[in-house]
Amino acid sequence: MKKYLQAHPWQIIEERFDPHLNKISESVFSIGNGHMGQRANFEEGYSGESLQGTYVAGVYYPDKTRVGWWKNGYPEYFAKVLNAPSWIGVKVRIENQRLDLATARVEKFQRILDMRTGLLTRTVVATLADGKKIEVESRRFCSMARGEVGAIAYTLTALNFTAEAELTLDVDADVMNQDSNYQEKFWDEVSKDSFEDGVIVTAQTKKTHFQVATGIRYRIQSQGAWVHGKKPRVELREKYAGHIVPVTLDQNKPVTVFKYAAVLSSLNHPTEKLTGNCLAVLNKAVDDGFDALLNEHALTWEKKWDECDITIEGDVEAQQGIRFNIFQLTQTYTGEDERLNIGPKGFTGEKYGGSTYWDTEAYCIPFYLGTAPPRVARNLLMYRYKHLPKAIENAVKLGFNDGAALYPMVTMNGEECHNEWEITFEEIHRNGAIAYAIYDYVRYTGDASYLTQYGLEVLIAISRFWAQRVNWSEDKKKFVMLGVTGPNEYENNVNNNWYTNYIARWTLNYTMESIVYAREHAQDDYRRALEKTKLNEVSEIANWKTIAENLYFPFDENRKIYLQQDGFLDKVLTTVNQLPVSERPLNQKWSWDRILRSCFIKQADVLQGLYFFEEDFSQEALKRNFDFYEPMTVHESSLSPCVHAILASRIGYYDKAYEMYLRTSRLDLDDYNNDTEDGCHITSMAGTWMSVVKGFGGMRIKEGVLHLNPFLPKQWTSYSFRLEFRSRVIKVMVSPAGTELKLISGGPLVVSVNGIKRELR
Amino acid sequence: MKKYLQAHPWQIIEERFDPHLNKISESVFSIGNGHMGQRANFEEGYSGESLQGTYVAGVYYPDKTRVGWWKNGYPEYFAKVLNAPSWIGVKVRIENQRLDLATARVEKFQRILDMRTGLLTRTVVATLADGKKIEVESRRFCSMARGEVGAIAYTLTALNFTAEAELTLDVDADVMNQDSNYQEKFWDEVSKDSFEDGVIVTAQTKKTHFQVATGIRYRIQSQGAWVHGKKPRVELREKYAGHIVPVTLDQNKPVTVFKYAAVLSSLNHPTEKLTGNCLAVLNKAVDDGFDALLNEHALTWEKKWDECDITIEGDVEAQQGIRFNIFQLTQTYTGEDERLNIGPKGFTGEKYGGSTYWDTEAYCIPFYLGTAPPRVARNLLMYRYKHLPKAIENAVKLGFNDGAALYPMVTMNGEECHNEWEITFEEIHRNGAIAYAIYDYVRYTGDASYLTQYGLEVLIAISRFWAQRVNWSEDKKKFVMLGVTGPNEYENNVNNNWYTNYIARWTLNYTMESIVYAREHAQDDYRRALEKTKLNEVSEIANWKTIAENLYFPFDENRKIYLQQDGFLDKVLTTVNQLPVSERPLNQKWSWDRILRSCFIKQADVLQGLYFFEEDFSQEALKRNFDFYEPMTVHESSLSPCVHAILASRIGYYDKAYEMYLRTSRLDLDDYNNDTEDGCHITSMAGTWMSVVKGFGGMRIKEGVLHLNPFLPKQWTSYSFRLEFRSRVIKVMVSPAGTELKLISGGPLVVSVNGIKRELR
Q1: Which of A14, A307, A457, A489 is catalytic?
Q2: A274 and A211 in contact (C-beta within 8 Å)?
């Protein structure tokens, strides 16, 4: 854990430059707008340790799979988030010295990410080798109002000299992914061009043939006046175009470059119009100017915060942490485009590849349901609906048939990317989460139209998968599910993972209910779904019913707890507090063999099941299982603590709930797992939000009614959160005085608080 | 399965050239002598599909591990069998046309491997593009009498022309492994030289710094007279040296090149003397001449066959098959060098890397015990003894301590090479096989000196491993062993694999017995072992005893069978004959997921245990388990059928035994598994020998006495085998008239045949 950032309710602040922390800060200070984003790399370049990252949503590359030993059924490639052409370059050369913080003496350094307005500011005073002292101030944002536009205001002030300088303003498509499997570059040049005050480079990905046009224009201002000076030198290379602009740096007279960028991809524009449209977007941005762009950007953020802000009084770090999570989630996914999803690193790193894990359904959808209009979550559901044919193909590849679907563990376009057999083939609970998200959406929004129009097909295909994936055990006289990996990935290839069996049975039942609902309430939809899926209403449903009624669940009669899997009680049952601190995290300190055989849990999947299906269990059952599993859980998945926080809140373990909240909310700000340099843990940030809203706030939807059951952690003075719920925005404020509710927008609503109904107007 | 080779009792014969079969033939026609060997690549080169392979025993390269996803505990590298500098090149150019069977019209082609003499002969008639018709006859061997010497007699006859030709006689160290993980070459040049009638190249492996000097000299003969003609052109390149020798090819007048090679490695010579010694060996070979070398080579083979031949009357294919197996094993490992071992592909291919698997202990040692003096098997045991410190290190890496040893799954120098967690970390039964081989050696040879001097340390270290690897299950009130993969690799990460638990308990008991034995019979050895291992005679032995007495074994009370692992009865229990032929082999047709969940067995590990510990079980128990497991076994491991053949023989299932024998004996000759092109399945060949000797012959050693209990498969007229046993060579002949025994050499011996003792003189 590192604590080097300053606490502030709305800002992330770094006060000095430490090269060893640079990659972490590059992640934390990332900016994005759902359409594109980037790590906090320096505009002037940096020869020290850095992970260069510019990302364009939906643009990926299928890197050839690298494995030690091939297993039948593995995918041919792993879809990588692409490091895309960079538009941020403002390289600075002063009398043949390049400005580079790796070689200059950095005397002052400050980086501020203002989350309220989405603006990244950096101020540096550096002394070059020959003693020239220069101040740099850079302000940068990716416009939330115009997804394809980014802008930089980069100001240089010569503090103790006057000299000629050169600024290189460029687009660099000659970039690569650090995690390329075979050290290949993934971009080819399509075209490039230079014009009076800018350049444009259009590049195309190999194999996938996505095109991205990146255009930049610039303006230079000195002491408030535009500089129209010497002609730039044009530099054109393969996949690169730049202008080298001579400027005079007069002592103490700031020179500012405004660099505008437009980044358009062939996802949204026909390739033949890409360059033209790019220039049009770019020109409009230049015409409007930096201040106007920044203003509309900040206004858009203001609106976003109105929907989703959480305030915490009495604990600035907690306040900062929760806002950072909401900020990152909001800039990763805006819900405008049903082809996009929430990558595990968002726009903050390239690790893991793929854009979609079960994280989206289990963690992110509740966040977007609670903080954005229903279409955002609906788009995430549509994404999976559109991938249904590929999920069916994927199942066929593994030996399933008749329309059974296995959604991929990791995907970009619906095809599986992952290649570890124990995950790719066995971590099939993801299918359950995808079914559950449909239920979650309908429950929260009350909108059953998605269910009957689209969801039903998905549910039928997933139920078919479960029906084929179980088998009858003559020995147990029950249906069993063999060879699975649950959410607790510290167990592999187990039999009868309780969570997976539970969500499988739930899916079968929910599918059968949904069929009845659709038959009664949406006959056209129902008939169409029947036709498309060729469902046999008699034999298939009868079979599902038999399975649902006869599925096996491992249970310990002594302790009255659900068993994580068959044979779990054969382990040496000990607790995390018996482990020496020096042996943690286990995933860094122990061999895989030892981890697998131990009782220690990465994320407790029985508890995940109790969280999803809380209403099926008594308070005592929740407690018993929590008491058994929580002490064995090492929380080495970023997705783990939030579920524990919610359950702990539910059963009145408030201190435990708060402890779990702390683990999740500042995970990246404090680099808790020593891996933030690879990027932020975007999807688990949704879990932080859930910890507050579903945990401390006790928010639930039951029979269409919003229920709240809040408590105030003793460490806080008060807190508040906002909820989007059925066309209203509701503000919930919790203080020692009790729970106050305010209807920010929308019509009257009845809300249940601590079991008592209140009407909001 | 392919049937393109001619049946013959002593020869392997290919009668025509099929480019699609060439890589298979390259494997099958491989030659070697324990010190070095090579695939049947053509001397003149070949531009078609080919796997070039020249191998020098013990010379390997640690190729950087390639995995998709790293797991803690994985080794940094995978030791590869090295494609070494080639000495076979006799490239032929006739008036600027290169002789290349890929481009010439091949009119006649015959390849014969004479197993009796170890000579590879190839006769070709080919027409070049311009109509020149030429005959080639090549004879080649790696001397069994001089491990460092190889020789080729290569004869060219111009059939319809007279022309000038050039022969290139070279050493080529600029070679690579086809399975290089990162497309790297593994050799650097140390030196090269050219002299009047030959060249020498010394090359060194990267990282491991093995040096190999390869020298060649040649003589050219035309119509019985030595040709001393035009001076050769010398070609020297990086890692390459060759002479280009002009010769005149007169129509119908054969020209023969005798090419002699000496291949010396730094394993056996100080590097500073390597080149000098190489030349000395080479010169001696040239002085003695091809015929004398061939003669002594053939005589050595004759002696080998005297020790290990098996004859089969009435079935030429079976005869050829068994001899091929014995031939390949004998040329792979001669037992002279305790640093060497038996690679899975021997000198016939580079696949799998490593040289040592548990195959050596479980399959090869019985073969060498039965067919060679005890020192051969003893050297194989010493190999593991010398690796004991590394096996202890390996265990430490995985979290074990206090002198526990886990031998590697795959190794060259004692370090683990393999990198699949379910095998590397979990296929720990290998440790048991290594212990068992000590027992097997002592039982067969009666030589307990190995046990007390060396074996005891190994046994103690392995017992320590088992003692730490099990854990107490409060639930079962037994010790259990979690997370293992048995010999049946179609199950991974299971609990309580019966075979592994059984061999673990056996090891504990055998170690305790051996301690008592050493204490009583070899006190000095005992004291030394105690000191080295720091064994606590009280607490450790007490602990082992407790574990051995309380270890859990899964058992089906209904069927009275041992269960392969916990939960095996939850599977759908079906049989291989229910599988459509089109779905086999499963490892090519099914996803890994489906294979893991099915009941189908790659090699039946319960039966492996019954084979090892046959005397612990009643005939009825053997039958019951065989009847249960055999029908589920797909034998997709080349090591599987032999164990079934032996057990089937034991319980009187003679047809099944014969069927199993057929599967193993011609595995490579008929390319049964469609993978012989990668190399022959050397280690499983020992299983074929066991099928005959332990299966049909019923050979066992009980209390120091050789027992035989033979039956004659009805498909055969008679068969015979020879056994090395306690300084005797015994010939066993089985015919309808009964079993005849002959003492070929050594003093009188009492042998039990069908339970009746006979004295041989």
Answers
A1: A489
A2: yes
Tell me A250's DSSP state.
-
Q: Is the peptide bond before A232 cis (omega within 30 degrees of 0)?
A: no
Kindly report, residue by residue over A671-715, the tens digit of the pLDDT.
988 889 999 999 999 999 999 999 999 999 999 999 999 999 999
Give the domains, in start order, of chain A with CATH numbers.
7-64+75-306 (2.70.98.40)
What are the backbone angles phi and psi of residue A174, rounded to the nearest 5°? -90, 60
Tokens of A561: 């707890």
Task: For chain B, give the longest Cα–Cα distance.
Answer: 88
Residue written as token pair 């082992």: B544
ipTM of the complex: 0.91
- Test B475 with A73 for CB contact under 8 angstroms: no
Nearest in space to B487 (alpha carbons), one of B559, B411, B409: B409
Q: Mention every residue, 6+ apart, whose C-beta is less than 8 A from residue B232.
A: B169, B243, B244, B245, B246
Average pLDDT over residues A332-361: 90
| Nearest-10 Cα torsion for B405, B638, B659, B671 | -170
Contact B735, B697 (CB under 8 A): no
Amino acid at residue number A152:
I
Other residues' Cβ atoms within 10 Å of the Cβ of residue B113: 25
What is the distance between the terminal CA atoms of chain B, rounded to a whole angstrom? 45
Alpha-carbon span A143 to A289, nearest angstrom: 12
Strand partners, A60: A81
Which chain A residue is nearest to residue B394, measuring alpha carbons?
A: A591
Q: Using CA atoms, how far apart are residues A758 and B203, in angstroms rounded to an integer?
A: 87
User: A285 and A147 in contact (C-beta within 8 Å)?
Assistant: no
The kind and range of the H/E element at A444 are helix A429-445
Interface of B with A in 30-89 (CB under 8 A): 65-69, 71-73
Judge: A475–B569 Cβ closer than 8 Å, yes or no: yes
Give the strand pairing for B471-473 and A749-753: unpaired
Q: Strand (E) positions, A631-699?
A: none
Burial class of residue B232, CB neighbours in 10 A (0-12, 13-18, 19+):
buried
Give the HSE-up count for residue B624: Cα atoms under 13 Å, Cβ half-sphere: 14
Q: Tens digit of pLDDT for each residue in B654-710?
A: 999 999 998 889 999 999 888 899 999 999 999 999 999 999 999 999 999 999 999
Q: Are strands A211-222 and A198-205 parallel, antiparallel or unpaired?
A: antiparallel
Whether B489 is a known active-site residue: answer yes
Among residues B694, B688, B597, which one has the least CA distance to residue B648? B694
Phi, psi of B654, deg, nearest 5: -70, -40
Label residue B625 exposed, middle or buried (CB < 10 Å: 0-12, 13-18, 19+): buried
Checking B579-582 for CB contacts under 8 A at 24+ apart, the result is B579/B634
Q: What is the pLDDT of residues A83-114, one digit of tens each?
A: 999 999 999 999 989 999 999 999 999 999 99
Selecting from B399, B473, B567 the residue whose C-beta is nearest the C-beta of A566 gives B567
CB atoms within 10 A of CB B452: 22
> Are residues B317 and B648 in contact, defined by beta-carbon separation less than 8 angstroms?
no
Residue among A399, A419, A420 whose CB faces B594 most closely: A399
| Contact call for A474 and B573, based on CB within 8 A | yes
A571 touches chain B (CB under 8 A): yes
pLDDT tier, A78 (very low <50, low <70, confident <90, very high otherwise):
confident
Of A66, A73, A476, nearest to B66 by CB-CB distance is A66
Question: Does A495 sit within 8 Å of B570, measured CB to CB?
Answer: yes
Tokens, residue A224: 């408030």
Burial bucket for residue A631 (CB in 10 Å: 0-12, 13-18, 19+): middle
Angle between helix A654-665 and helix A316-332 axes, rounded to 10 deg: 50
Contact A345, A682 (CB under 8 A): yes
